[in-house]
Design goal:
The complex is a heterodimer of chains A (502) and B (508). By secondary structure, chain A is mainly alpha-helical. Chain A contains 21 helices and three strands. Chain B is mainly alpha-helical and 508 residues long. In chain B, helix 3 runs antiparallel to helix 19. The longest helix of chain B has 32 residues. The chains are: A mainly alpha (502), B mainly alpha (508).
Chain lengths: 502, 508
């Protein structure tokens, strides 16, 4: 009755019905049962995590050829609201995110073993169990075919990460966890939920992303702007200022959580949702006709600069990385808000390249904590002599974040700057340049300090004192990974440009 | 056989009550099995009734074979079939649970407890089944009288709380009776469908007597359901009642009264009369906004877990009344669906409150420290209930909120929309406060530098409540998720009911 008018609805796209997206999503949820049951046998317990991780990754990989061939893979469960089913659909954007998240989960699991056992943490079963739930929710978001399914998994992710953030169960964790939930639940209830329902009414009961914007031409310009702002801030995991404070608070979590969830899964779910809002809810072409959308560009630009400046001022290493993440996330939001193909490609690509770079940095921060117990930048003098592998990986990660060759981070910035030029906004180009300089300013001094300053206070013997191998191997792999992304960006680039050129 | 199921729903608990009376005094331990069989039979019959309604449409059952308008009629459509199932499921779960509570709380009054329990269930089911406005009054009084007694069985302060409830309940019942009296004078009938036909057929729509009747009935029901500002009796009554009684009364009584309100509005007066001819809906829905906000804020001020839940019920009643008075189909769907979800949410949370009170001796919120360590399964059930109250998908609370907000936006009633969102946030604060207290170490713990130390609670043993208490809680928690995931099945039935009752959907 209303579908035929929907702009771009009958996109001639081959869709394949398959349960693989469903299985890939829920395999880690299923792993929770054996993980909890084998809580008394740590090695067996971690084996289940690895098994689930490998199965998940290989299921996701089987989807790659079809998606690259321009098909989408769908699976529909049942109708949950009139006209809106719980539905999974794999397209280029979702698949790229799923690939990155499930690949890095395996490495993070290895790292977690080294970290959690190295620090003799309590409640490790709970840790691994909720980690698995969080990954289920992440893939659920990545594969969601409509806004309601997306929201459902988004909320599951907020809740399942709460026990991870508050893992230490002390006063600091209590305060951090409270901020975390207030921001994430508060924004999703106050902003996202009413916007969702309003969108549902306005679209006449459609929430499907595949229509190329189910709200396109169904709302006026002012309505669209208000809805867009509500949704961008409703998905506050994207860290757009001023709703960013939950991320530094979440740094009370054990480092593997900060690494995978607060550099990759959770925050990228936030920007992923925002990308979906731009491309799937409104549609780029519809938004191009609305002047007010520029607000989002300027908010993102401000977040990029202010985030970097705050990062510069932080002494706690993890907090510095957290503010860096806030600033980098807005690159992706910027990529969407510039409303052209190249910027969008750059933004999507940044999900992958930033993930590899930032997870490396967090892994390093955790490795330093495990090996030396140090948390602050000012304590890191001369640490490069004792932890050369870790600090070298830190350098590689930093260079990727800054966006220098030969690291993957170059490509996403490249496309973003091209996109900014395409849109004729030279100020944005300047913002991106300035941000790169700031990245240098807050990341490289750490490396310089580590290698070129000598630690005067402590014993001067520079014997090798690395974190456990289980910590060092993953960070080496991710550091190499961000270099590999420079030479072989094709897979991610192809997947990213699938959405952009549609 | 099938056509007799509606009466079986009622007969099981009624004869159960009689059997308990006769056999219980001879052998006291027979009381619980009889109660359980009666409740189970009733549950089975209501499942079958719902199935029959879905498959074959409305069931009309004339008691004693006397046709309308002379005899009493049971008229079962989708609406009361759903409510029947909610009542019998909830009563069954609370019944299983009451084995332990009856032993612990009222050991010397076990027999009266089960008699009253079964009579109350009978009355609630009867209210839902009947198609006769006066018969409904009688059954409301049966349920209220048994309710007063069940509440008064509790601790010392329960007697006074029950007394207040008696006063307020009686005033409410009088208002209702007066309203029905006016209706009878004007229409000469007590059968609901018959009354509507007379009102609309004999052109009594403009009659002031009919309007007064409607207002009286509504006020009576609002007192009975604790609609703000007529709510003052509820929090004390529910928090001083024995746990076993509270687990039956709290989930069901207010919800069944909301059912009566919707039934009277839709079936007796007709949607076009209620929403069309008079400007009441605006006023009532703003009262609901105040109820939601006030209930939530007062809940925030409570230190006692069950009192907090009591005030939350006041807020939830605001949800349902407000949704029903938005004067559109979506709002009514939300309201009716919320009857289902709120019954199970309240059940889940009261079962939880009972377990922590009887098993861990905790009544106040701040005494709940460390419960995640000692009672992980119980706390899991609570967490699901809490998430449903907040309205996190995919629990049922999310979907009732969805339809209510949707209805609010359709009606352009932004005050109601904002009230619902604010109440969700307050619920989030309320419940995460409890979760925090139960999950974290005490704030004033002597040391928490570093996390390398093994944590304080690792030594404490897990000590869960017995299965007869834990299992109902887990089933209730699970049902919250299942109702949420399969909410569309229920919503389709509600929609069918509303369409056939003259509430068309929004123009698309």
């Amino acid at each position: 009755m209303f579908l035929p008018e929907c702009p771009g609805h009958p996109v001639e796209m081959d869709s394949i019905q398959s349960t693989i997206p469903l299985l890939a999503c829920f395999v880690s949820l299923a792993a929770v049962v054996p993980i909890v049951l084998s809580s008394r046998h740590p090695n067996l317990r971690e084996a289940w995590t690895f098994l689930a991780g490998l199965v998940k990754l290989s299921l996701v990989m089987t989807l790659v050829p079809d998606v690259l061939a321009g098909k989408v893979i769908e699976y529909t469960l049942w109708e949950i609201l009139p006209g809106v089913p719980i539905q999974f659909r794999v397209d280029g954007l979702g698949l790229m995110f799923a690939l990155v998240a499930s690949f890095l989960w395996i490495l993070t699991s290895l790292y977690s073993i080294g970290y959690m056992r190295g620090l003799n943490e309590h409640a490790q079963t709970r840790f691994f169990a909720f980690f698995a739930v969080a990954l289920c929710a992440t893939l659920g978001v990545a594969f969601s075919a409509n806004l309601l399914t997306l929201y459902l998994f988004y909320e599951v992710l907020s809740l399942s990460t709460y026990p991870l953030v508050t893992h230490h169960q002390d006063k600091e964790a209590r305060i951090g966890g409270r901020t975390y939930l207030i921001y994430l639940m508060g924004t999703s209830i106050l902003f996202a939920l009413p916007a969702l329902i309003y969108a549902y009414i306005k679209s006449g009961g459609v929430m499907d992303f595949s229509t190329g914007g189910f709200l396109a031409d169904r709302v006026g310009p002012t309505e669209a702007t208000i809805l867009l702002i509500l949704l961008v801030y409703g998905f506050a995991k994207g860290g757009l200022m001023p709703f960013h404070s939950w991320l530094p608070s979440a740094m009370v979590a054990p480092t593997p959580v900060s690494a995978l969830l607060h550099a990759v899964a959770v925050v990228k779910v936030g920007v992923f949702c925002i990308l979906r809002v731009f491309t799937g809810v409104f549609g780029i072409s519809f938004l191009s006709g609305i002047q007010l959308i520029d607000i989002v560009i300027w908010l993102a630009a401000l977040t990029i600069l202010i985030g970097s400046l705050i990062a510069w001022s932080q002494d706690n290493l993890k907090r510095r990385l957290a503010f860096s993440t806030i600033s980098q996330l807005s690159y992706i939001i910027l990529g969407a808000a510039l409303l052209n193909d190249r910027a969008l490609t750059g933004g999507i690509l940044h999900i992958g390249t930033h993930a590899f770079g930032k997870i490396t940095l967090f892994f390093c921060a955790g490795a330093i904590l495990v090996a030396t117990g140090k948390k602050n930048v000012s304590e890191l003098d001369g640490i490069g002599h004792r932890m050369p592998f870790t600090m070298f990986a830190f350098l590689m990660g930093s260079l990727s974040i800054i966006g220098l060759p030969p690291f993957g981070g170059l490509w996403s910035k490249w496309f973003l700057i091209l996109g900014a030029l395409d849109s004729g906004r030279f100020v944005i180009v300047l913002v991106l340049m300035a941000s790169s300089l700031l990245n240098i300013a807050y990341l490289l001094p750490i490396v310089v300090r580590a290698f070129f300053k000598t630690d005067s206070s402590e014993e001067t013997d520079s014997g090798l004192h690395e974190a456990p191998l289980a910590c060092v191997i993953p960070l080496m792999v991710t550091a190499m990974g961000s270099m590999a992304l420079f030479f072989f960006p094709n897979l991610l680039l192809d997947l990213a440009s699938l959405l952009a050129t549609k | 056989m099938i056509e007799q199921f509606p009466i079986f729903v009622l007969m099981f608990p009624l004869f159960g009550a009689i059997l308990v009376t006769l056999l219980g005094f001879w052998k006291q331990r027979l009381a619980f099995p009889i109660t359980l069989i009666a409740l189970g039979g009733s549950l089975f019959a209501s499942v079958e009734t719902l199935r029959a309604t879905v498959e074959a449409g409305d069931i009309v059952y004339y008691l004693g074979g006397w046709p309308r308008p002379f005899g009493i009629e049971f008229h079962i459509d989708q609406l009361n079939a759903i409510v029947l199932l909610v009542i019998s499921t909830s009563a069954f779960l609370a019944g299983v649970y009451s084995k332990r509570t009856a032993e612990l709380e009222t050991p010397e009054k076990t027999i009266p407890f089960y008699i009253l329990y079964l009579l109350m269930v009978t009355a609630l089911l009867g209210i839902t089944l009947t198609g006769d406005a006066f018969n409904l009054y009688v059954l409301v009084e049966v349920s209220s009288l048994t309710g007063y007694a069940l509440i008064a069985m509790g601790s010392r302060r329960a007697a006074f709380a029950a007394f207040r409830y008696v006063i307020m309940g009686t005033i409410g019942a009088s208002f209702y009776l007066l309203g029905v009296g006016y209706l009878y004078i004007k229409t000469g009938s007590l059968n609901m469908i018959d009354i509507r036909e007379v009102i609309h057929g004999a052109d009594l729509v403009q009659s002031p007597s009919i309007q007064v009747a409607f207002i009286f009935i509504m006020i009576g029901l609002w007192i009975k359901m604790a609609f703000f500002p007529l709510h003052a009796w509820l929090p004390n009554a529910y928090s001083f009642a024995p746990i076993g009684s509270a687990c039956l009364i709290a989930p069901l009584v207010t919800k069944v009264t909301v059912y009566i309100m919707i039934r009277i509005m839709i079936t007796v007066f007709g949607a076009d009369y209620v929403f069309g001819s008079l400007p009441w809906s605006e006023i009532v829905s703003w009262l609901a906004v105040i109820a939601i906000i006030a209930g939530s804020i007062m809940a925030l001020a409570q230190t006692d877990l069950r009192r907090m839940l009591g005030f939350l019920i006041v807020a939830e009643v605001g949800y349902m009344v407000g949704g029903a008075w938005l004067a559109n189909q979506t709002g009514l769907i939300g309201s009716i669906f919320h009857i289902v979800s709120d019954a199970f949410m309240t059940l889940c949370l009261f079962l939880f409150a009972g377990i922590v009170f009887l098993h861990a001796g905790v009544r106040r919120i701040r005494d709940m420290q460390g419960l995640f360590h000692t009672m992980p399964v119980t706390m899991f059930g609570f967490t699901v209930g809490a998430l449903a109250m907040i309205g996190v998908p995919p629990t049922c609370g999310f979907f009732s909120k969805w339809y209510l907000i949707n209805g609010g936006i359709e009606a352009g009633h932004w005050g109601f929309v904002i009230a619902l969102l604010v109440s969700s946030l307050i619920n989030a604060i309320l419940f995460f406060r409890i979760i925090e207290i139960a999950y974290f170490e005490p704030i004033d713990a002597p040391d928490h530098d570093g996390h390398r130390k093994t944590h304080g609670h690792s030594g404490t043993k897990i000590s869960e409540a017995p299965m007869s208490m834990l299992l109902p809680l887990c089933v209730a928690a699970l049902s919250l998720v299942l109702i949420g995931l399969f909410n569309h099945e229920i919503v389709v039935l509600i929609k069918d009911f509303l369409v056939s009752a003259g509430m068309p959907g929004p123009p698309s």
